[in-house]
């Protein structure tokens, strides 16, 4: 695949400096009401006021807060984060909310359709939806798929222009993927790679489709190797503009913790050997990349919400725990959004919304240090010599990724997680067997219907022959006399 000519991945942006501002800051309560306070540090410096690394900090913001939501989409263009749609209490949302990183203030946009589209198939406003994918493409934002009140047959590609605040539906060529929600859409060079999701009738998918953004043509490539099992609400990332990574997600009966790799040059699936901590099964998590690091936060499984924020070194496939939170504490929520924003060379992750027993409309930020985790061998050697590793000493004011006293429980934790992985594999096999049985039952139903049809035709034929023989009795009495 060709290299990108300017676009950047979702959530990334050109470093920007924040001008000094002094607005009145508003902090929301849990019930959605707002109370005025004055926070000179945050209001004067915005995200730059966050001095602690690798810890989530709630943002004090001004303006009318968006409605709480999850399964929305978010992307950063220049100095603003745009939030599209989502779900609240089973209701699809169709609004566009904007968080200005310069002033840390929220506002709502009233978008309109493009009056005279030049290269679009139609000018359709953003429809209320959830589970869609939002991608930054240059100074515009692409929106794909998602669950809506009136689902379409095929997946459409819409474009939002922040400068003109207009929507348009782009004309694509080739065979478009079927409509779906909970899929992953990843920018790889100048193409979009769509994987999996949940289609009509809650059918889970693991198909792969690629959209060339230069020709706007869809292609469905044949792959080798073993692809991920059908799933939705997983996370995906691109590394080195060549490799697609898929993490976790869920089926109707279980959540996954597996990591899959697709080489987009050879179109071969593989399972890389992972190192470090073992990720818990999760679905509904969010991810964003900074260089060779992939940050994962939020999500949950059938037992609980996942409270740790993980980081994967995509060069070595080593997982580390960046930070941990209390249960149900944002941004551990399922269906939250996660973007990256760079200010004066510092990288910030910004999480918004989600669901963890209740819907959230809070924004949290984390200042990423991008420091590699301390290998356990170094920690053990340092402990035996009575010294702390140098990297730990240098970052004594920061939260250490691995607390030394927790290392004793790692083996037990790994044993439990391995057992859970075995049980999940068994559940997945059972699910496949049930699917095969259902297919066989459907075939049996079809055969039974065909048999009934043939029997009816046979009965009809026999009746006709009997009627015909009755009309010819006078010619065949000899036969009936000797053979009757």
In CATH, the architecture of the largest domain is 6 Propeller
Number of helices: 5
Q: Under the CATH scheme, which class of the largest domain? A: Mainly Beta
- Report the span from N to C terminus: 82 Å
Number of strands: 31
Backbone structural class: alpha+beta
The major beta sheet can be summarized as:
6 strands, mixed
The name of the CATH topology of the largest domain is Neuraminidase
Dominant shape = globular
* Cα-atom radius of gyration: 29 Å
Helix content range of the residues, please? 10-25%
> Per DSSP, what share of the residues sits in E-state strands of 2 or more residues?
35-45%
Task: Report mean pLDDT, rounded to a whole number.
Answer: 78
Question: Low-confidence stretches at least 5 residues in length (pLDDT < 50)?
Answer: 1-44, 115-123, 372-410, 470-484
